[in-house]
Amino acid sequence: MTLSGSPEPGRVVAAVTGMLDAATNPLLQNTLLQALRTADRLLTLDLSGVTFFGSAGVTALVWLSQHPEAAGKHVRVVATSRIVTGPLELTGLLDRLDVKGMPDGPPRTDRRPPR
Fold first, then answer.
1. Which three-class secondary structure state does DSSP give residue 38?
2. Is the pTM of the predicted complex or chain greater than 0.85?
3. CB atoms within 10 A of CB 50
């Protein structure tokens, strides 16, 4: 996990790569808390490099969205794979969070045109 500033003041990007599971959740939450404290207006959580997104990842996003340090700040999530968007969709977080970079839906297996 890395934190970086943005070209615009008050914005922070937290880029996460690899697996988000119970073993990495404490590090993730500490990094996100640091990012929240650093960002004045916008925190972008870039999950495009995540290879596994388990329940701990979902828990971290709920924790982030409800944390007192997030009050008055906008949190954007970049999710470019179904690895991340699938669990977000199943839990209803896809509708509650500002998610960008959504992949296309699952590939169609039939060759009939849509109705």
1. helix
2. no
3. 19
